[in-house]
Amino acid sequence: MNLRINEIFHSLQGESSTVGLPTTFVRLTGCPLRCGYCDTEYAFHEGRQLSFEQILQQVDDYGARHVCVTGGEPLAQPNCLPLLTALCDKGLQVSLETSGAMDIASVDSRVHVVMDLKTPGSNECDRNLESNIGCLKPIDEVKFVICDRRDYEWAKAKIDQYDLRNRVAEILLSPSFGQVAYRDLAQWIIDDRLPVRMQVQLHKIIWGEEPGR
User: What is the number of other CB atoms lying within 10 angstroms of the CB of residue 130?
Assistant: First the structure.
């Protein structure tokens, strides 16, 4: 089996509950969404076909225990599903970063899913696949990228609507880079005593917009 791969690289995880941990990233090519704040547009089309054997060998070469399969939108390629299983079978800690617009029902139950709920400010809010909510596991995480105060209020409503506090391990609120001040989002969360984790994209703080980091 093959997948079209944009890049495979080793870095520190910049987001989610494993932030700061050395991680190997497998970035798949392609995405059906066009979020206004997207920072990986280079992954829409650029990439090359690699066999599972080639992918797994590159992952082995880096030697990290944590592997993050990302995109683009990795689930846009059907062969992403058996790749996730193959990575889990190697005893790796595997996470999947997905937009929430693709069905996650068939994702291996060992995979730690980090799923976006697209806010109005993304311009792709209508692409959220509501059936995915029922597929989330207690180890999974839901992320909201916040572009403005309206997005924040929308996220609060969705947290209550889907009872996310009792459904997933982490609720992540991430300020859209350059659109919302860290201090503003932090203050909103504190004022509302909202039980969420604010994340600030550690990789961008360290390396800026450099691809592959």
Answer: 10
| pLDDT tens digits for range 6-58 | 999 999 998 999 999 999 999 999 998 999 888 888 888 889 999 999 999 99
Query: Structure pTM?
Result: 0.93
Give the residue numbers of the binding site for S-adenosyl-L-methionine: 37-39, 72
Please state the residue numbers annotated as binding site for substrate.
12-14, 27, 70
For strand 48-51 and strand 2-12, is the pairing parallel, antiparallel, or unpaired?
Answer: antiparallel
How confident is the model over 74-94, as pLDDT tens digits? 999 999 999 999 999 999 999
Give the annotated binding-site residues.
12-14, 27, 31, 35, 37-40, 70, 72
Detail the residues annotated as belonging to a binding site for Mg(2+).
Answer: 40
CATH class of 2-207: alpha beta
DSSP 155-180: HHHHHHHTTGGGT-SEEEEEEPTTTS
Domain spans in the chain, listed from the N-terminal domain onward = 2-207
